[in-house]
Amino acid sequence: MFYLLTIALLFQHGSAFYIPGVAPVEFGEGDPVDIKGVKITSTKTQLPYEFYSVPMCSPPEEQIEHRQENLGEVLRGDRIVNTLYKVTMKGSIECRRLCAPIKLTKEDIKKMTERIREEYSLHLIADNLPVATRIMTSNEDVMYIHGYQLGTFAAQTTVINNHLDFHFKYHVVEDSEPPVYRIVGFEVMPRSLNEKSFKFNDDGSCKIVDQSEFKQIKPEMGELTYTYAVHWSESDIQWASRWDTYLKMSDVQIHWFSIINSMVVVFFLAGILAMIMIRTLRRDIARYNKDEDLEDTLEETGWKLVHGDVFRPPKYRTFLAAIIGAGIQIFFMALITIGMAMFGMLSPSRRGALLSACLFLFVFMGVFAGYFAGRMYKTMKGTMWKGAGLMTALFYPGIMFSISFLLNFLIWGKQSSGAVPFTTLIALLCMWFGISLPLVLLGFYFGFRKQPYEFPVRTNQIPRQVPEQVWYMNPLLSTLMAGILPFGAVFIELFFILTAIWENQFYYMFGFLFVVFVILIVSCAQISIVMVYFQLCGEDYHWWWRSFIVSGGSAFYVLLYAVFYFMTKLEITQFVPALLYYGYTFMMVFSFWLLTGTIGFCAAYVFITTIYGAVKID
Predict the structure, then answer these.
(1) CA-CA distance, 521 to 526, in Å (whole number)?
(2) What is the DSSP letter of 468?
């Protein structure tokens, strides 16, 4: 555990790393700096829209250039386009009109008013650096929020931010002749200024003469003028550290508290496990392996009594093999993704890389899912390997795709840029049926051809009757009890993940996330072993499904926490955004259930084969 904490400390700022091959862009004095529009977003609606979906200065339609986005950017709703902002390196602008005054229709005014009241923010990038608004907290601490607000609504008055003060920071490259510069900061201060606040010149430049009047959105207004200013300042920030400004938005001490909290849970479970393994199990095995007074020993503990039934194949073995395969696929995808992100390969500076990596890794991990599911299916005496392989390949991705497709219809209906284009849906289907499905079937074929996992004891022909169980071994109650501890190990980190997803924040503490992921694996394995041991001591040998469900009990608490987060942290009031939240939450919880259930099942299987292989069976 000490080494895991060391890794977390080393990589807690992993997102500031840049992998080899990612070179900074260098500018000479006077070189153009492109400012591009990304999208507009709101935490109230969770529906992103294209940058020019609200009335603002835009190039002529034939001159609008859309940047080629990767798969992750498309799924995030990014639609990156060029803008009319004219910025050059170290070229300060006191005030300039962005374009000729825009004539507004009643529909434009209505849409603008709605977007401002829904608290939409606009997002720009320059040199792949997102714009941020600098604000002061009540404690006089500096904080940055992503993008800038379209406007404000207060006291039944709607005000639009029509003037932007851009503040660029640059770093001079050492020993460069002539001097070259790198952009290391991109901030904006949005303001609302009435036309009377400006004095315009014929060349488009202007001067702010009065800042007392705001630009209000009124039904009778006919035109809207956008202006901007540009300021440059030298900074000591290195290019590789320029994202630190955006990422230092949460208290690192909370993450350390999360780690310590998780370690307490793990050590608590480890203590219980050690007591069972060292004291009880060693004593039981020693007694079972003695020839003397065997009958009295069997009456004291019951787990050896079910040795002839403990490996009896479960019901619905095809379905069990399918969900175990899906869990293994999710496990390897999550492990490799978090590992890559910890080393900075999937940092927020690489837009869409995290989501793209998750999708591609999930697809290619299908071969491992098929192999382990196929071999486990044969171990459970399954014979219809083709049907089981197809279920493994289609069950989990089918549920995920179906829910996403239905939610996508709702997003389409809102004309949001978050709607996945039809061509991207076709590409996802090709990845599923063209890569994932064949790989799962291939792995399942080779797994089924291998020898099944060996059992240390033989299975009786006649199943043993299971006695009545004590009240606390009720499946529902034991699942609820078992799920508390793994959830307690991850719930603090879960808060930051939900914040990153739903409140438009960056998640970057991948070093901490890796440690929490390892702790989750250990705690799920431990709680599964403990609960299965108690179950076998009660002479209940139906552990196959129970170990999966009990270990996955923490998913229920993740669902409850997601509902709590929705009720207390988010301000979603509309039906479609709420449906989107719960739809995506179900997908997340279902994936978490498969992951934790598979971890618990594998741990229980290893535990049971170990203890029954250690005793002498006549």
Answers:
(1) 9
(2) P
DSSP 5-60: HHHHHHHTTGGG---TT-PPP-EETT-EE-EEEEEEE-TTT---B-GGGSS-----
Q: How confident is the model at residue 9 (pLDDT cuts 50, 70, 90)?
A: very low
Q: What is the number of residues in the chain?
A: 618
Over range 237-266, report the average pLDDT.
71
Tens-digit pLDDT profile for residues 51-64: 888 888 888 888 88
Q: How far apart are the first and last CA of the chain?
A: 41
pLDDT class of 8 with cuts at 50, 70, 90: very low
Token pair in block for residue 536:
């076998």
Per the DSSP assignment, residues forming a β-bridge with 123 are: 39
Tokens of 209: 């003469």
Question: The tokens of 267 are what?
Answer: 């050590």
3 state SS of 112: helix
- β-pairing verdict for 148-149 and 35-41: unpaired
Nearest to 359 by CA among 38, 73, 53: 73
Q: Which of 17, 23, 33 is nearest to 86 (CA)?
A: 33
Question: What pairs with residue 159 in β-bridges?
Answer: 152, 216
Q: Write the DSSP assignment of 381-433 as a string of letters.
A: T---HHHHHHHHHHHHHHHHHHHHHHHHHHHHHTT-TTSPPHHHHHHHHHHII
For residue 116, the one-letter residue type is I
Rounded CA gap, 416 and 343, in Å?
A: 34
308 φ/ψ sector (left φ>0, alpha ψ -120 to 50, else beta): alpha
Q: How far apart are CA 249 and CA 481, in angstroms?
A: 35
Q: Which two tokens stand for residue 120?
A: 């939409």
DSSP 565-587: HHHHT----SHHHHHHHHHHHHH
**DSSP 8-state assignment for residue 95:** E
Does residue 528 or residue 140 have the better pLDDT? Answer: 528
- Cβ atoms of 108 and 24 within 8 Å: the answer is no
* Nearest C-alpha neighbor of 24 from the set 203, 146, 176: 176
Three state DSSP letters for 119-162: CCEEEEEECCEECEEEEECCCCCEEEEECEECEEEECCEEEECC
- Please name the residues in contact with 155: beta carbons below 8 A apart, sequence gap of 6 or more: none
